[in-house]
Structures are given as C-alpha cells and as structure tokens.
Amino acid sequence: MKNIRYSIEDFVSETGERDLGQGVFELERDRLLEVNLDGMVWSKRGSMVAYTGGIKFTREGILEHGLGKLVKKSLTGEGVCLTKAEGQGKLYLADEGKKVSILNLENEAIFVNGNDLLAFESSISWDIRMIKRISGMMAGGLFNVKLEGTGMVAITMHHDPLTLKVTGDFPVCTDPNATVAWSGNLEPEIKTDVSLKTFVGRSSGESVQMAFKGEGFVVVQPYEEVYFQAQT
Fold first, then answer.
1. Distance CA 44, CA 114 (A)
2. Domains (ranges, CATH) in the chain?
3. Which of 109, 113, 132, 170 is the most exposed, fewest CB within 10 Å of its CB?
4. Residue 4 half-sphere exposure toward CB, CA atoms < 13 A
5. What is the pTM of this model?
6. To 5 degrees, how large is the angle CA 191–CA 195–CA 196?
C-alpha cells in the first residue's frame, strides 16, 4: 500500500511561501521576515537568505550616513552593519534563527540594541546613542540605535520576548545583555548593585543594570547576548 503521507507535494505545500498581504514587511515565519520590496530598505548585513525579482544589494558606504555616524561607529564599535536592498521583488531575511517582530512606527521612536536590528524602511531615520558611561564600571560604554519616523522596523530576539510597562509608580530594571528594545521617550540610566559586585570578591552578571523610569515600555529576552562586560 502506497504511503500518501509525507510526500514531496505535502512538504512543498506546508512549507511554501505565503502571501499574507500585510504590507512591506510580513512575518513569513516567526523566524523569517518577508520584505515586499518596491524601492529600498536597509537590512542587517548577512541576513539575506533568499529573494525573487530584481533586487540589487549594496554594502553600506563608509560615508553613507554622514561623517557623524562614521565617527560614532569607529569610537563605539557599535555593530550596526547595514546592506542596502533596492529594486522590486520579495526579500527574505533571518538572523541566526532568532524570532522576528515587526513594529510599524507612526511618527514614533524606539531604541533597539544594534545586534537585534534586522531591517527598516528608508523612511526611518536612525542614530547611534550612548546611554551613559560611568568610569570604572563598564569596559566601554553602552550604545544602542534610536530609530524614529514613520515606517516599518523589524527586530530579532532569542525565544519569546517579554514586554514590561514602565510607569512613574513602577520603574523597571533589566540586565543590559538581555535588553532588546525600549520606547523612545525613556532614558535609562546605568546602575550598579554593590552587594552583588562584591559577592565572593568578584563581579556578578547582575551587578550592572539598566534602570528605566517614566512612562513607556522595555522589551527583554530570556537570553543574554554579551554586548559588554562589567569591569571587576
């Protein structure tokens, strides 16, 4: 008797591309972004996994975003390496199997860790921002990307994200290495927990924290990507 399950036709049907008609950015899968390209978008360098149509890829130029951003990237080592995708077609992006979330900004702003930024429309402006550096506390500073304007932004994270609301009565503290993004109106500060830092004579992973106060939200992931190390 012929086994009609698990046929090639079934596999192609179940895993095939789906046209959801949701706009420029669509979640083709929870770990795969589809870009319905008709113009230009910026994407994280090395994130393209496939495309159809006529799309040209151009590596970000040294002065593509002006001398100011070049100096910041040189000084901070911020890993915002971009590729310009231009043309018409479907572009598929992914980043190490991380989950993808799409944010549609409407004259709004959001901060994103540079390593978690997958793609954004050309209508979105961006800049590298330093939160705060306290001498002797961190090896280097803590830098993120501020994106603002109107358009779509795609970010990535390990596993399922948790979004915490920040209010005047309920501030939120997070591990910088687990923090993915936060609302553009918040200005977090870096704080240290002296008791944790001095425990058993060495620094704890929780000794450096980001403190969010005000009104907004912060997104964390159940995973720590090492962006910086606290100095012992």
1. 9
2. 22-220 (3.60.160.10)
3. 170
4. 0
5. 0.83
6. 75
